[in-house]
Amino acid sequence: MSLFLVVALPFLGALLPGLMNSAGRQACAGVTFTVTLAAFIGLLTNLPAVMAGELVTARADWIPTLGLNFTLMLDGLGFFFALLILGIGLLIIAYARSYLAREDNMGEFFTYLLLFQGAMVGIVMSDNILLLLIFWELTSLSSFLLIGYWKHLPAGRQGARMALTVTGMGGLAMVGGMLILGNIVGSYDLSVILQSRELIQDSPLYLPALILILLGCFTKSAQFPFHFWLPHAMAAPTPVSAYLHSATMVKAGIFLMARMWPVLSGTTEWFVIVTTAGLITMVLGAIIALFKHDLKALLAFSTVSHLGLITMLLGTGTPFGAMAAVFHILNHATFKAALFMSAGIIDHEAHTRDIRQLGGLRTLMPVTFVIATLAALSMAGIPLLNGFLSKEMMLEEANHTVLFNTPWLVPTLAVVGSLFSAAYCFRLIGHVFFGPVRDDYPAKPHDPPKGLWLPPAVLVVLVVAIGVAPFLAEPFVKLVTKSLLGTAAEVPKAYFKIWHGLVPALYMSIAAVVGGAIVLAMFKPLLRMWDATPRPEAKVIFEGLIEAIVKLGQSIIHTVHNGAFSRYAAIMVVTVIAAGYHAWTTGAVGEATRTLQPAGPVAIAGWLMLVAATLGMAFLHRNRLLSLVLIGIVGLMVSIGFVFVSAPDLAMTQITVEVVTIILMLLALNFLPNRTPVESTVLRRMRDVVVAVTGGLATFALAYHYMLREAVTTPISEFHLANSYKGGGGTNVVNVILVDFRGFDTYGEIIVLGIAALLIYALTETLLSSSVRAKLLNRKPDQPRAGNQHPMMMVVLTRVMMPVVMMVGFYIFLRGHNEPGGGFIAGLIVSIGVVMQYMASGFSWASARLRYPYHGVIGAGVLVAGLTGIGSWFVGKPFLTSDFTYVRIPPFQEFELATAAAFDLGVFLAVVGAVMLSLESFSRLARRDKTVENEHAFDIDPSRDDPPEPEPIGQKGEV
Amino acid sequence: MEFLIASAIGILTAAGIYLVLRLRSFPVILGVSLLTYAVNIFLFTSGRITIGASPILQKDVTTYSDPLPQALVLTAIVISFGMTAVVVMIALGSYLGSNDDHVDDPKVEPSETEDAT
Question: In terms of CB atoms within 10 Å, which of A198, A320, A399, A633 comes out highest?
Fold first, then answer.
C-alpha cells in the first residue's frame, strides 16, 4: 500500500467516528478499529521491502520553492515506530471501547485519537524535515485535545494546557533548529541530511542547531528539566495515558534523536548533553515514582525514568548503546502499555487508583493480577521477561561510559536508577495485589470483562515471549538498529541471550533487584523522610511563571492600549509625519519639470468655497447639523473640481455618493445628540491644532512637490490608453479599466461593499434584538414633528420623477463603456431614486412595494459578475477575460455587445443592493412605537396635536 | 491650479486631523470623511493634472489625462461610502447602547483592572 495512504488513512478516518456517533458506541469503535487496521495492514504490506533493506518512498511536490515537499520514506526505524503506533493503537481502541463511560462522547474521543495517530505516523515516515515539523505540531495539538478530553475536570484542562505549553515551546525551538540544519546542508530532505554528517558537525552552527533540536526532543520526551508536564497529563482517560506515554507521543522525541543519531551524535556536546539529561531523568523519575500513591502517577514517573534511560543510551553515541535503546523502546512499549491498562482496570473496578486504599486484590482480580505482575516484574528487570534483557544491555553500556572523567559515575547512577525502578515495581505488586483483603474499597473489585483485559494480555504474551526467547526479536531489532545507524557505524555483533555468564552487568542487576527489595522493606520510614523533605512543586512554579507572564503582558497592554482612541489617532498622525520628515530630509528631490496649469476665476471661486466650508467645519463642528451642511459643500466642490481636471466619471461618482452619504449621516444624526459639548481643555485643543496644522502643511508640501514633477518611472497608463478600444472595445478608458483591465479588483471591491452592507444589517438586527429596542420604540422626538408626514407635493414629485430617474440610470449604465458613466454611477443614481420614495412616501409604503430583498440584489450582483468571469473558462481563457462584438439588428444602428457589460451589470446590482440595504437598516431604527403605520401615502400624523415639551439645549438626545 | 489643489489637500487634511482628534464620535466621523476627500484627491493627483483632456478616446486627439488613478479613485469613493456607513452604524450602536458617544474608553481604575482579569 502506498505510504501516502498509510499516513492519510487515520486523518480521513478521523471524520468517521464523529459521523458514526449517533449509530452507537459499537459502530463508533468498530469504524475506528477498522480504519487503524487498514493502515496497519497497509504498513505490513511494506514489510518485505523493508526487510530486504530497501527504502520505500513516496513523493509529491508541495511548495518546491521553499524546499517543502510531501515526501515520505519508510526504513527499518520508521517501520518499527509505525508498527508500535498502529499496533498498540489497535489494542488501545479495543480497550477504550470498554473503558469509556456511557456519558463520554465516544465519537469525539476516537476522532481525536485518529488525528493523533495520523500525526504520529506522519512524523515517523516524513522524509522532509519541514513536513516532519508540521506533523510534530499536529501531535502537540491533538494530544492537547486528548489530554483535555474530560473538559469538566479542572485537572484535565490544566494538564492539557501545561502539556501544550511545554511541548509547543519545544516545538518552536525545534523549528529553529531544523531550519538551521536545513540551511547548513542546503536541503530539507532527510535522506540528504543523513548523508551530511561531516558537513553538519564541522559547521559553526552545529551547536545552536543541536541545542534547539534537543529542546524539542527533551520537552516532547519529558526529559529533565521538562519532565514535569507528563505526570499532570495523567488527568486524561487511561487509554490516552496508555497510548501517549507508552508508545507514541513521548517516544516522538526519542524517535527524532534516533533519526538524527547518524549526523548529530558522536560529538562531545551530544554526549554530555544527552547522557547527562538522560541519567538525571532516569534517577530522579525512579525516586519520585516510588513515593507516588496514585497508580497512574507512579507509572507516569516510571515512564519519565525509562525515557531517561533510553535517552542516556542514545547519548552514549556507540552502536551498542543505540541497539540497546531500540530494544528497550520495544520492551518498554509493551510492558508500560500493559501496566497503564491494568491501572485503568483497577481504577475502573475498584473506583480508586490510590495505592493506600488498595491491597489484597490478588484473589479478587486474579486475571489482572497476573497481567500486571508479569508486566511490572519485566519493568523491574527480572529474568525471563523482556525488561531484563534490555536492562542488562543498558548496564553493560553504562559500564563502558565515562562521563566527566569519572569512571564510577555512570555505572553507579545506572544501578541507583535500576534499584529504585525495581523498588517501585515491587511496591506496585506488593501494595496493590498482596496483603490482606480489605473491606473498605470504594467499590467491590472483580475482574473486568474481556474487552478490558484482553488488550493488555496480548502485550504480556509479547513480554514473556521476548523474555524467554530473545532470539525471536533479535533480527528485527538488528534491522531497526541498522537503519538507525545508517552509514555512520556497523551493527554490533552481540547476541541476545538470557545468560551471558558472570559479567559485571549481572552483578549490577542482582544488586539493583536485591537493593530494590530492601528499599521496599524500609518503605515506611523512607516515606516519612520523603514527606518531611521540602521539594519544589513543578506545577506551582509553572503556574506562577505563567501568571507572571500574563501580568507582564497586561501591564504592557494596559499602558499602551488604554482605550483612548484620540490618543492612538494622535500617535499615528505624529508617527506618520515624523516618518515623512525623515524621508524628506534623507532623500533627494529632483528639479521641477512640469509647467503650472493656469487657474481661472471659477477655479479660484470654487477653491475659496471649499476652503471656507472646511475651515467652517473645524470651527463650527459643535453644531452638528451645520457641519453636515458644510461637508455637503465640500463634497460638491470636490465633485466640481473633478470636472475641472478632466475626470467626468469621478465627478459623477462623487456627487452621487455625496447624496447618499449625507442622507445616511442625517439618519444617524436623528438619534445622536445634535450638539457636541465643549470638553477638552484649551491646552489640548492647541495641541491638536498644532498636530493638525503640521499634518496639513506636510501633505500640502508633498502634493505640491509631487505635481510639479513627472513620475519617476513611466506610468503603465499608456498601455491602457492604447488598448482600451482595441482590446476592451470601449472608448471610456476609466470604465474599461474598471470592468476589463482591472476587473478582478472591481470584483473584489463589490464584494467588500456587499459585506459592509451586510455588516450594517447585522448590527441593526443585533441592536433591535437587544434592550436598545425598547428605548428606540419609546423614544421622544427632540423636535416637534411635521404634521404632514408625507407632503403631497414631494410624494407626487418623486413618483413622477421615478421613471425618469430609472431611465437616466439605464442610460448612464449603457453608455458607460464609451462615455462617462457605468455600473457604479448608474447604481448610485437608481439608489437615490429609490431612497426618494422612502423619504417621500414612508418606510412602510416603500417596503411593501419592495419585490426583491436587498441581500438578494447584492448576491445577484456578485453572482452575475462572478459568472461572467467564469464564462471565459469555457473558451479556455483565464478568469474575467472579456470579449466583444458588433451586431446590427434592423432597424437599429450597429451596436456593440460586450461581456464587460454583463460584468458591469453585476457591479450595478451590487451597488444598488449595498447602498439600499445600508440606508434601509438605518431607517428601520427610526420606527417608533404607537405611531400608526401609514397605509396610504398622504396621511396626517395625529401626534402633532400633542407636541413634546421642548427640552433645554445641551441635554437633547440624552433621554 | 496645482497650488490650489495642493493647498486644498493640505487644508482638508488639517481639518480632518483636527476633527479626528475630537472626543465625540460624530466629529470623528466627519474628520475621517474629510481625510477621505484629501486622500482621494491626492491619489488622483498621482496622475498629474491635465485640464480639458478627459480619458475618453476620440479621433485625432493624443493628449488624455491619466485614466488609471481615476479608475482607482472611483472605486475608492464607493468603498469609502461603505466604510463610512459601517463606522456610523458602530458609533450609533455604541451610543444607543450606552447613552454615551465618547470615542475614548472611560478611565479604568487600577483596582478594577485587576478584578477584570
Answer: A320
Q: Among B16, B51, B75, select the one facing A645 at the smallest CB separation.
A: B51
From the CA of B36, how many Å to the nearest CA of chain A?
A: 11
More confident residue, A810 or B111: A810
Q: How confident is the model at residue A956, as a pLDDT?
A: 43
Alpha-carbon distance A598 to nearest alpha carbon in chain B (angstroms): 6
| B35 min Cα distance to partner chain A (Å) | 10
B10: CATH: 1.10.287
Q: Does residue B13 sit within a domain?
A: yes
Contacts of B5 in chain A (CB under 8 A): 641, 645, 703, 707
Chain B nearest CA to A414, separation (Å):
48
- Beta strands (DSSP E) in A661-717 are none
pLDDT band per the 50, 70, 90 thresholds, residue B111: very low
Length, in residues, of chain A: 959
How many CB atoms are located within 10 Å of the residue A94 CB?
21
Q: B34 in a domain, yes or no? A: yes
Please, which residues 540-559 of chain A have a Cβ atom closer than 8 Å to chain B?
Answer: 550, 554, 558
pTM for the complete prediction? 0.67
Containing structural domain, residue B44? 2-50+64-108
Contact in structure between B51 and A597 (CB atoms under 8 Å): yes
Binary contact (B22, A676; C-beta < 8 A): yes
The three-point CA angle A915-B94-A758 to 5° equals 30
The model's pLDDT over A548-581, given as tens digits with 9 standing for 90+, comes to 999 999 998 888 888 788 888 999 999 999 999 9
Instruction: Name chain B contacts of A654, Cβ cutoff 8 Å.
Output: 77
What is d(CA A474, CA A633) in angstroms, rounded to the nearest whole number? 92
Q: Which residues of A touch B21 (CB under 8 A)?
A: 566, 569-570, 573, 688, 691-692
Q: Which of B77, B92, B108 sits opposite A668 (nearest CB)?
A: B92
Verify whether the Cβ–Cβ distance B23 to A594 is below 8 Å: no
- Tell me the nearest-neighbour CA distance from A739 into chain B, angstroms: 10
Residue B104 lies in a domain: yes
For residue A955, pLDDT beyond 80: no
Q: How far is CA B22 from the centre of its chain?
A: 16
> Is residue B9 domain-resident?
yes
Which pLDDT tens digit goes with each residue over A198-248? 888 888 888 888 899 999 899 988 888 888 888 888 888 888 888 888 778
CA distances from A293 to A130, A298, A426, A452, B87 (A): 42, 7, 14, 23, 61
Predicted-complex ipTM score = 0.92
Q: What are phi and psi of A89, to 5 degrees?
A: -55, -40
The set of cell numbers assigned to A669 is 444624526
10 Å CB burial of residue A886 (0-12, 13-18, 19+) is exposed
User: A676–B6: do the CB atoms touch at under 8 Å?
Assistant: no
How high is the pLDDT of residue B116? 41
Q: Total structural domains in chain B?
A: 1
